[in-house]
Amino acid sequence: MSEQKRPFPQAAPSSRWPARSRWSARNQWPIIAILFLFILLTSLYSWLIPPFEGPDEAQHFAYITWLADRLELPPQGAAAWETPVQQEASQPPFYYFLASLPMRIGRLTEPSAVYRPNPHYLAPLPHDLPDNDNVAIHYPTDTRPLQGGWLAFYLARGVTLLFGLLLIISAYGLARQIRPAAPHIAWGTAFLIAVTPQVVYLSGMVSNDIPAAALSALALWALVVLLQRPSLSPWLALLTGSLFGLAGLTKVSALVLLVPAGVGLGWLWVSRQQPFRSVLWAGLGMAGGVTAVAGWWFARNWLLFGSPVGLDTHDYAPWSLSNGGTLAGQNARWLEVARSYWLALGWGAIRPADWVYAGFFILMLLAAVGLLRLARRWQKTAPPRPTPLLPILLLVTVAVVALFLEIWMRRVVAPHGRLLFPALAPISLLLVIGWDALHPRLPLVGYGFVLACALAAPLLLLKPAYVPNLLAETELNAIPPTLGWQFGADADHPLVQILRIDLPPQASAGSIVPVEVCWRALGQTDTDYTFLLQIIGPGNGLAAARRTYPGNGLLPSSAWQSGDGSCDTIHIGVPEALAATLVYQVEIGLIDEAAGQRLPAFTAVGDPLPNPFAASIRLEAHDTPVTAVSPTATDPIQLLDATFNPTWTPGTSETLRLTWAANQPLTGDYQTFVHLRAGAAGPPIAQADGSPLDGWYPTSWWPVGEIITDERPFPIPADLPPGVYQLVVGWYDLASGERLGQEFPLGQVTINGKTD
Fold first, then answer.
1. Which of 57, 90, 685, 722 places its Cα 20 to 30 Å from the Cα of 308?
2. pLDDT at 9 over 70
3. Contact 49, 57 (CB under 8 A)
């Protein structure tokens, strides 16, 4: 039987060791090459990603700093939120202890690594283009030269990288133990883990996710070795339990792997492969190892905080369901988990296109089909069938980790694929086995696709998100300064010049408006100014706004050099509840938010700009009414309805409600006239002319067929004699005075005698 047609991977008979190919340095060159590739990829990711941009990296490093400075563990519960460690204070300390050693031994304290939150960071929601993906503000002087706390930070990332190497080696060993006669399965498992973008990314961050995954894989490897021994060794069980304890002392969720350990021991007893006495001693040895390594931590938590695992610390987080968080639907939660398992960089917002995720999902589906095929092949195998213990252990491991995550997601908003990483090695092994079962070359497709994503992410995702897009002087000079406005303390000392602003002519409620702002620094400052973009409507009302540091959050003005410049695409969200469809004005400014002051604005020639409105945009509200245009319509603008009070009093003002629709595209901005006449013809006795909607919706912006309602005040002269008058409306060009189309008679108005 060929390797590709073997039944499900099986435990070796208890009477002998599993057969395995000869291990030597010469036939292990693939794993060495895989480790080298992993180091290169992780180093590239870590170099491109600034400090504190990993998930909760500021809190993880605060834990390390706390241990190094205070030589004590941080508090848990509500008290944790009074420290910079926050929710990570509930994490077990093993990884943080190791990562704090370089800081403690080398006394790497000054300058301290300062976490400066980006005040304009977009919520960790996926979006298509780079825009304030940096959760922290970064200055070039932070890490140049690399010393003190900043050096300690990168050394902590290096500790994570070492655990990443351990993860790959452990997964490789686990796969070799399960499929000893198929080294390509082990190499493939190691390679898949080494090029999974999310693994590469997290292996270069200050985080305990990869250490927990590595120790979990190592413990599972030891478990499989234990279960395959001809007789259960209590000492090997003690070692295995100690490894599970180390995993649990790194991340609490790793302790759920004791469930498959119990399943494995129980299987050996129920199937009578091992006597009960041996199983009992192995179980006690494993429990003793876990207790000896990690028991003190959970006992301490119970005694000091009343919670053995400390998970209640997360209940005080804003994303806790008991503290304002929202539970998403189960399908939505797990779709997000699956996506972020493969690739979701930064704090989850830096992502590839949807078709990339479709590729990952197809690979997962193919692996599932392959595993089902193996299961059916095993079922059809003539008795005595090989024992399915090992595949059951892999599947149980994945199932219990997924179950724990589901329970956790019902407590906090945490649909993060990295929380499945205690089962990372079994998941990767099952994927490779499933692909291999369908076709011997299918794994190559899977490896190639995942590797391509890992190689493309630095250039296509990380560089745009974290490397400022400074333009060369020649590029800045090539931008036509259509605006040329300057902002500074005064006209003689400008700080920045706004070269131009480009944005789409229209957008709808609920959409995102991309505004390109091209700017050039004319001076230097110690203040970090914020770009302020506002969309203004009638009555100086604010329809939408966006604030950001220049460079989409990457170029704080205090780090500018004179001559620096860029073109930023700033995204402004239009609210769903937009009040009316109008043409709004776009205002730009620079503001010192700490002082609450704006920088004065000046034209290119130095004249003051009290209202720096740079552009106009038509925003369409939901349910904007439209009407069908009659094919026989001859008037450019059609009067659909008119509502007014038929009896007026001199010296007051009446409101006319006029409803219009354009029958054809309008190229000019026409004025409405409303005339009160003594007869059907003749000069107006009183009038109320002006732009439609008080100038907030010029006719050149009107789409054909849109129903537009204009409420227009009509001031009635105090000396207007009583009588019956005719009211007419129409349109004209203000510059030429030429009428547009016909005028529309509205009917009669009765003027009462003047009352005091």
1. 57
2. no
3. no
| Residue of 68, 94, 74 lying closest to 313 (CA atoms) | 74
pLDDT in tens, 245-262: 999 999 999 999 999 999
Buried b (16+ CB within 10 A) or exposed e, 70-82: eeebbbbbeebee
pLDDT at 688 over 70: yes
CA neighbor of 360 nearest in space, from 124, 193, 196? 196
User: Which of 542-546, 606-610, 624-628 is most confident?
Assistant: 542-546
Residue 389 has pLDDT above 70, yes or no: yes
Residue 378 clears pLDDT 70, i.e. is over it: yes
Pairing of strands 597-598, 582-592: antiparallel
DSSP string, 22-83: PP-TGGGHHHHHHHHHHHHHHHHHHHHSPTT-STTHHHHHHHHHHHHHHSSPPP-GGGGGGS
- In this predicted structure, the answer to whether residue 655 has a pLDDT above a threshold of 90 is yes
- Find all residues with CB under 8 Å of 587, minimum gap 6, and list them: 532, 533, 534, 535, 536, 611, 612, 613, 614
Q: Return the closest-CA partner of residue 85 out of 68, 98, 110, 101.
A: 68
Instruction: Judge whether 210 and 48 are in contact, CB under 8 Å.
Output: no
Quote the CA–CA distance of 342 and 294 in Å, as a whole number: 30
Vertex 491 angle, CA 470 and 493, to 5°: 55
Longest Cα–Cα distance of the chain, Å, equals: 118
pLDDT digits (tens, 9 = 90+) for 294-339: 999 999 999 998 888 888 888 888 888 887 778 888 899 999 999 9
Cα 464 to chain center, whole Å? 14
- Comparing C-alpha atoms, which of 114, 34, 100, 31 is closest to residue 70? 100
Rounded Cα distance, 161 and 42, in Å: 7
DSSP state for residue 315 in the 8-state scheme: G
Would you put residue 290 in left (φ > 0), alpha (ψ -120 to 50) or beta?
alpha
Q: Looking up tokens 């009588």, which residue turns up? A: 723
Q: What is the per-residue pLDDT across 182-209, written as a single tens digit (0 to 9) for each?
A: 999 999 999 999 999 999 999 999 999 9
**Closest C-alpha among 467, 519, 473 to residue 495:** 519
Give 235-247 pLDDT, tens digit per residue.
Answer: 999 999 999 999 9
Domains by residue range for the chain, with CATH: 3-226+305-463 (no CATH), 473-620 (2.60.40.770), 637-751 (2.60.40.770)
Q: Sorting pLDDT into bands at 50, 70 and 90, what band is 633?
A: confident
The mean pLDDT value for 346-367 works out to 94
Tell me, rounded to whole angstroms, the distance of Cα 228 from its chain centroid: 44
Give Cβ neighbours of residue 204 (< 8 Å, ≥ 6 apart).
42, 43, 45, 46, 49, 54, 157, 160, 161
What token pair was written down for 115? Answer: 């976490």
DSSP 644-658: --SEE-TTSEEEEEE
Joined tokens for residue 707? 């129903």
Q: Pick left, alpha or beta for residue 463 (phi over 0 → left; psi -120 to 50 → alpha; otherwise beta).
A: alpha
